[in-house]
Design goal:
53% strand, two-stranded antiparallel sheet
């Protein structure tokens, strides 16, 4: 069929490199402008929330079609958490010890279960290391994932306690306003 051995070799090399590139891991970077992470809490005066303005991370798949995640990491710059109130932000940064701990992170440890829901949508149950103020705790984290041709979205929430991460719930006005220990972290994280 092939009379020219050089042409045959060239076609085999092209086929080989094409096959290798298909089997390589696929990496997506967190898009900070499209991603939203909000921390919700309570106090003796009113409920409150703060939102991250600066986060980064990567997700790597060994198989995108079946949602086989090789790695996932997210980093939140601690002083990018903003409430719209400077006094509250200062109390938050003091509680998070941002002079020493510049970022809070999540690092995937293990995928426990992936359920396919059709049309590139998956429900994922995972374990990961959450590090806040230098304290690392392994947590379970469940999220919904939507995979399209150029975008990966992760949506979910996680309840935690400040004291689990050696954070003293902030107080204001000489202790007359106290913050509740329970927090809910809501996230809609976009990777491209």
């Amino acid at each position: 069929m092939y009379k020219n051995p050089k042409l045959k070799l060239l076609r085999l090399l092209v086929l080989f490199f094409f096959t290798v590139s298909l089997s390589q891991a696929q990496q997506y970077d967190l898009n900070n402008k499209e991603s939203v992470l909000t921390v919700l809490g309570t106090s003796s005066l009113h409920d409150w929330h703060i939102t991250s303005e600066n986060q980064s991370g990567k997700i790597v798949f060994t198989n995108l079609n079946t949602c086989e995640i090789e790695s996932l990491n997210i980093s939140i710059i601690a002083e990018s958490l903003k409430s719209g109130k400077s006094s509250m932000d200062k109390n938050t940064y003091k509680a998070l010890k941002t002079n020493k701990y510049k970022a809070n992170t999540f690092q995937l440890v293990k995928i426990k279960e992936v359920k396919y829901n059709g049309n590139g949508k998956f429900s994922v149950k995972s374990l990961g290391d959450l590090t806040i103020t230098g304290v690392k705790k392994q947590i379970s984290l469940d999220f919904n994932m939507n995979i399209t041709s150029d975008k990966i979205s992760l949506v979910g929430e996680k309840k935690i306690k400040m004291t689990d991460f050696n954070i003293d719930p902030p107080k204001a006005l000489f202790g007359t306003i106290t913050t509740g220990d329970d927090l809910t972290i809501e996230f809609s994280t976009i990777f491209r």
